[in-house]
Specification:
Elements lengths: L6 E7 L6 H9 L6 E7 L6 H6 L6 E5 L6 H5 L2 H4 L4 E4 L5 E2 L3 H11 L3 E11 L5 E6 L5 H7 L12 E3 H6 L10 H12 L1 E13 L2 H7 L2 H17 L6 H12 L7 H18 L4 H18 L6 H5 L12 H19 L1
Parallel strand pairs: 1-2, 1-4, 2-3, 6-9
Antiparallel strand pairs: 4-8, 5-9, 6-7, 6-8
Helix pairs in contact: 8-10, 10-11, 12-13
Length: about 350
Amino acid sequence: MTINPKITVFMAAYNVADYIKDSIESILNQTFTNFELLIVDDGSTDQTVEIIKQYTDQRIRLVQNGTNKGVTYTRNIALTEARGEFIAVLDSDDIAVENRLELQYNFFSKHPEIALCGGDAIIIDQNGMPTGERIDEPTGAENLKITLLFTNTYVNSTVMYKTSVLRELKGYRDYAPAEDYDLFTRIADVYAVDNIKEVLVKYRKHESNISSRQSANGALNVKRIKENQLASLGITPNKHLTDIHYSLLIYDYSHFTFQEYLNLFTQLKEANRKVNKYPLNTFEKMLFHRWFEIIYLKKAKMNALTLLFDKRIYNATYSTNSQIRKAFRLSLKGLGKISK
């Protein structure tokens, strides 16, 4: 048993007998060895616990809930059980690359102001075979703090955060299956956060995790997070505004008009200028680029240039020649339809 580990690797497990062996061994084979592996079984009814108990490595600690308590309860066991200065999350169906812990520990050592760090991932299928897909997350502390307002910029299995911060924020809240996104946004409200441009895990995509992410309850809890984010800027959220904000996260712009998005972005811009939550120039530049994305993907056609240059959001220093050319081409297409 590691008495004073630098890192607690936290693994929540529930009926993952088909996958957990690979997950455990990916941690035991890490190049960084000063860790404990804290596995919390949430009342599995398959062979998960039996597989865990086959390992005799003293760095493994198994906690059993007895009955199924749910992901939020299970993750919060880290509040009292984690011994490490840092907590590294690895879902029990994913695989850490062999230098994952070393890369992140070195990053924290060089950047003590950072409270949360993640990285990139490659996708594997349920059989552990690479699909050729990769998840590339943005980097830069200032950039990530703002980007989290719009989308989740972390692959949960790649995150490492300071144990003291988890305890300060009283752990995860009951937002499953979006409890991780909620925690990330709350950490970013108080501390600097970042990603490193390295592949840290092999993320296993299978029907169980896809259905969880797409569940009605998942959407409802993400919308609760969106409400919290709007409120933190001093904007009184309502269902309509929250739904528009949520559509930015799922990149589905089909249900709302350009004017509705412009209204949201204008409110966000004005609110941030009042409360000064995000760096002004970086924030407004990101708003403009999301605005262009909506114009382009919704195919604004004839009014594309008018929308792009709307004085409520346009700034010449934010736009690019490429954006202007694309908006111009959309407008020409619209004119072409009329001429026919």
